Amino acid sequence: MHPGLQQDLEQFPQILERTRQIAENFLAGLKQRPVCPPLERQQLQPGDEQLAQSGTGALAALDDFWRHYEAGISASAGPRYFGFVTGGATPAAVAADWLVSVIDQNSQLSHDTIAAAIELATIEQLKSLLGLPETHSGSFVSGATMANFAGLAIGRQWLGQQRGIDVAQQGLAALGEIQVLAANPHASSIKALSMLGIGRHALKTIASLPHSEAIDTQALERHLAASAGVPTLVLASAGTVNTVTFDDLPRLLALRERYPFWLHVDAAFGGVAACSPRYAPLLAGWQQADSITVDAHKWLNVPYDSAIQFTRHLALQMQVFQNHSAYLEAPTLRPDNYLHLTPENSRRFRALPLWLALKAYGRDGMRDIVERNVRLARLLGAELAASDDFRLLAPVNLNVVCFALNQTAGDAAAARDRFIARLDAHGVVRCTPTLYNGQPGIRAALVNWMTEEEDIRQTLASLHHCLPEQI
């Protein structure tokens, strides 16, 4: 064995202890850490782009990393990171994620690990939490992008099946033209169209309802009637990123009866609202969707690299993702045979953090996170609406606040960008720019399990502190 590897094998307990110390110190200072470190601290040290001939060993490498780069790490796991709809990681999820790396299981149905059984149980518990029926199967993928990819890939196969074509075998050319209809699809779905060979140009944007991001179902019906016979995927939003608007799923289901299409529901973070009886009605009808995306590293607060794709078309899913090899078990139709159900052959045991979090906090704990975040988002929205310096661009429908500077003259986008730069430099709260109804806006998305009312007070203080003298 290489001497460096031998040394680290012998020092494994010390390496783990040093990692624990770093993690403990990081978490202790998380609420004080800047949510956006200075750009100069986000740069590599000279020479760190190069591979060294001789290694330093794990302890020295770990200390070198933390000494040089700790100041470049943001508090994105903390309670005032309202940027990219990113949850933190609950203590149970962190503990599980550490174990995932230590035990290093490939979570396939390989009959040499319990990983696949735990993943299946996690999916079943999540369906129970969110009110999804037994008819849906599910599997973990790396994020909402791959969950949307998987759902649309199965939808592509369904479109072929309706016309006697096996797209997985014959290719997309055998099916021909596909149209994809949506009002405000997430960019990850559009990326999926590119990866699937359907193409971005297949997307036909349907009008939204007035003063809303929800799809105008009458406009959709007119388009469906005019394009009858064209293989169609409809992308529904269950929580848009700007305003958390939900498409009218019951109406879409009624249209599906008249104009058969594949209904995919992107519920990356909005779907988790179903764990609250107060907000579950927003998702009425999603139980009948053909495919669904839910992102675990958003409102479920597990570490990155975790989302779930659901579908009620398991056999079609296996047709798309089955993997044939002499040394592997042949495809069999069962909901835990993940080798034949997901894009990846090798899969990190990403179900364990959610499994442990559900066990640790249960139905009530998850509901608390959702309802507290919504209450605090509405508090933030009410305070901004009452201010002379800001205005809401849209009602606070759930957990995202979409607002703007109360500027009446000049370049609104440039003023917004300067304001966000000051906000980032202040380091108290992280918001992101957006565009809503043609107006430059700012988004604050609340999904972190630690966010409390004190964080809203600090957020408001920072927002006002970063205003220019004259707006």
From TrEMBL:
**Which GO molecular-function terms appear in the entry?**
transaminase activity
This one is known as Aspartate aminotransferase family protein
InterPro entries linked: Aromatic_deC (IPR010977), PyrdxlP-dep_de-COase (IPR002129), PyrdxlP-dep_Trfase (IPR015424), PyrdxlP-dep_Trfase_major (IPR015421), PyrdxlP-dep_Trfase_small (IPR015422)
Write down the required cofactor(s). pyridoxal 5'-phosphate
The protein's matches in Pfam families, at most eight in alphabetical order, are given as: Pyridoxal_deC
The alphabetical list of record keywords is: Aminotransferase, Decarboxylase, Lyase, Pyridoxal phosphate, Transferase
The family line of this record is: Belongs to the group II decarboxylase family.
